[in-house]
Write a structure and sequence with these properties.
Helix content: 25-40%
Radius of gyration: 32 Å
Largest sheet: 5 strands, mixed
Strand order of the largest sheet: 2-1-3-8-9
Oligomer: single chain
CATH architecture of the largest domain: 3-Layer(aba) Sandwich
Number of domains: 2
Structural class: alpha+beta
Shape: elongated
């Protein structure tokens, strides 16, 4: 008989296994454990890595922000620059749109975090992991302030942890407005300015209390990269960055679309400086480099520079006199000049015709095609490969693949020596030499002498189509003047605080040899001929030996003359900022005349010396000169006729063929792009 089914009681049978805590309880335990572990680790890190906590009361002391006095090489004062005297300007006294522009761009949750923006940090971490590198930062304004006030600029994990600790410590002791006040008054804003007051006075010629919305956006945009976005370097780029800041303000709710459009239609304008002052270009250049030399200055500075006031005056006169004469009928509106001593110290710098109208420095910032002024690097490479100035090569039609360069006058003269070819600036010969020795070797020579800009690998390399700055090209000629030693362009000799504490000093020792004595003598001979019977004859000074090379880019857009004496190297560029052609201006015309007038005036009180009598190269005869400390001794150069004739014979045996078709390089530039002299 079957048992009746058991009655349902509504209760589940007992689980033989004991039930554990719920999921919520487990998560709670893990969260508590994580918090406790984090607290312990944070405490360990704090006691291990935390820097000494400074006294915040000193942060409010009145002072000048990076006040600096700039001295010429002779000790005379050439400029004084400082921010302001008095107490820091509270954020409540500044326009709201200034602080809003900074917060919207740099730290949108500034008023809601405790010194570390966890959300921003996480977002930056994810972005960097995806990109496989550092593409986004997660620092708050408080962290940036902590770094600027108390830490060095070195980028290490330890310093980052210390920065975070100091930020949290500052947040515990200061209000948000106090932190923002300190930040806006201490942050670096380019062109040697620290704080919004200094920057506003520098860029706009007005107090920070009076900046407009567009000006505030420009200042806030500088925080990302002060030197890169400084309006004195590139106003167009600075305004583009300011436009992004304005859009950030709209996204953060500080501006309406109508206010955005109004600000975009009225971008910030730079204040007009004094009409005089070519030296202002030099001071701007120096100020940009001071932070990399000394970091954040502890006090007002005295900066001793390499500038020579009489030479600077001579440079300004030469530029203005020739532009005044040629501007209208030659359609040339701008010029620039830079001069170096034999160690690379800048003696004079004119970055443009008028600093008052344009602070754009055409010596350091403009990149233009040098044309034939690049050819000395080709010829030097050829000399180092075994040719001599008397080697004969044929000037004739030449082709490299489908490319057919032509001479400036579209004529050919047949057999010619290297010396004469360089003096006459023959394009076909330069291309033949470059193809013979190899473009890679020509580029290596240019790099060795100091060119750092990108150089094309196209056959047109020999004709100077790669864009260079006047600063780097002129400095690269200096080893030819000083006996073959490499130089680094510089303008600061030493930096001290007003109480005399030394912060930086340039050693001034001779550089390493980059050109041999033999090739120095050969290049001096060839480039001297360019002044006596070549395209640079208008640059030949009346009072001393000199050497140099002209350069003209396609359609007369750029005119150059780079040359040197036994004491100075100087480079001149003329052209138009909008790259429009001049009216038949070559390097042998306006640039050559500017160069000659400058050299004659700047060297008037210096003894005339042969080019081989560089004070950095001691010759083994009675004319030996050792005018500077740290003289590097080299032996005399053998230049007897037998060796030269033998070199010429060898070069004829291995002469470059007229129509070289062995290369198969793709043509990247048009024929017209390389017709310049």
């Amino acid at each position: 008989m079957r048992k009746p089914p058991a009655k349902k009681t509504g209760k589940r049978p007992a689980n033989p296994r004991k039930r554990g805590p719920s999921l919520t309880a487990r998560l709670g335990r893990w969260l508590a454990l994580t918090i406790m572990t984090g607290a312990v680790l944070w405490s360990l890190l704090f006691f291990t890595l935390a820097p000494p906590m400074p006294d915040t009361s000193t942060l409010w002391e009145a002072r000048k922000s990076l006040g600096a006095t700039f001295l010429a090489v002779d000790g005379t004062v050439i400029a004084r620059r400082g921010a302001f005297n008095g107490a820091l300007i509270p954020v409540s006294k500044l326009p709201d749109h200034l602080s809003q522009a900074v917060i919207a761009t740099e730290d949108r949750r500034f008023y809601n975090h405790f010194g570390m923006d966890v959300i921003g940090f996480a977002r930056a971490l994810v972005s960097n992991i995806r990109a496989g590198g550092i593409v986004q930062g997660g620092s708050t304004l408080t962290q940036q302030l902590a770094k600027n006030l108390f830490l060095t600029p070195t980028r290490t994990i330890t310093r980052k942890i210390q920065e975070l600790m100091l930020a949290i410590w500052l947040e515990a002791r200061l209000s948000k407005d106090e932190i923002l006040t300190l930040y806006l008054n201490r942050v670096y804003l380019g062109a040697g300015t620290y704080g919004v007051e200094a920057a506003s006075q520098k860029y706009f010629g007005k107090p920070a209390r009076q900046v407009t919305l567009s000006e505030a956006a420009l200042l806030a945009g500088l925080l990302k990269a002060p030197s890169r976005y400084a309006p004195t370097n590139n106003l167009k780029r600075s305004r583009a960055r300011a436009a992004q800041v304005l859009k950030n303000m709209v996204a953060a709710g500080y501006l309406t679309a109508a206010q955005l459009n109004g600000a975009l239609r009225a971008p910030a304008k730079l204040a007009r400086g004094s009409a005089a002052g070519g030296a202002r270009y030099f001071i701007d250049w120096i100020q940009e480099r001071l932070p990399s030399l000394i970091g954040h200055p502890p006090a007002d500075l005295i900066v001793r520079t390499t500038l020579d006031p009489p030479m600077q005056h001579a440079a300004e006169i030469a530029v203005e006199r020739n532009l005044k004469r040629d501007a209208a009928h030659r359609k040339v509106s701008q010029a620039a000049l830079v001069a170096f001593n034999l160690s690379g110290g800048v003696r004079a710098m004119v970055g443009g015709r008028s600093y008052a109208k344009s602070q754009y420095n055409r010596v350091t910032q403009a990149q233009r095609q040098p044309g034939s002024a690049f050819k000395p690097f080709v010829y030097l490479t050829a000399l180092e490969s075994g040719l001599s100035p008397r080697a004969v090569i044929r000037d004739e039609a030449v082709s490299v693949g489908k490319w057919r360069p032509r001479n400036f006058n579209k004529k050919y003269i047949g057999d010619v020596t290297l010396e004469s070819a360089l003096a006459k600036s023959l394009n076909t010969v330069a291309v033949k030499l470059s193809e013979r020795v190899g473009r890679k070797k020509v580029i290596a020579t240019a790099r060795r002498l100091g060119l750092s800009s990108k150089l094309t690998t196209h056959p047109s390399l020999a004709l100077g189509v790669s864009e260079l700055s006047l600063m780097e090209l002129s400095a690269a000629y200096t080893p030819l003047a000083n006996g073959g030693l490499g130089v680094i362009p510089h303008g600061v000799l030493d930096v001290r605080t007003r109480d005399g504490r030394l912060l930086y000093r340039r050693t001034g020792s001779p550089g390493t040899r980059v050109v041999s004595p033999r090739q120095i003598t050969q290049m001096n001979l060839m480039l001297s001929t360019a002044l006596t019977s070549g395209t640079g004859h208008r640059a030949r000074p009346q009072n001393r030996p000199a050497a140099g090379k002209t350069g003209t880019s396609q359609n007369f857009r750029d005119g150059w003359f780079i040359g040197y004496t036994a004491d100075l190297t100087a480079g001149v560029w003329v052209g138009n900022d909008n790259n429009t052609p001049m009216r038949n201006v070559t390097g042998g015309q306006t640039p050559a005349r500017i160069w000659r007038q400058f050299i004659e005036k700047a060297s008037a009180k210096l003894p005339a010396r042969a080019l081989t009598e560089s004070p950095w190269v001691v010759r083994n005869d009675s004319r030996s000169r050792t005018n500077e400390p740290g003289v590097r001794k080299t032996s005399d150069v053998d230049t007897n006729d037998v060796v030269e004739q033998l070199s010429s014979l060898i070069s004829k045996l291995f002469a470059v063929p007229g129509n070289s078709k062995s290369t198969g390089y793709a043509i990247k530039e048009s024929e017209e792009a390389v017709e310049g002299e």
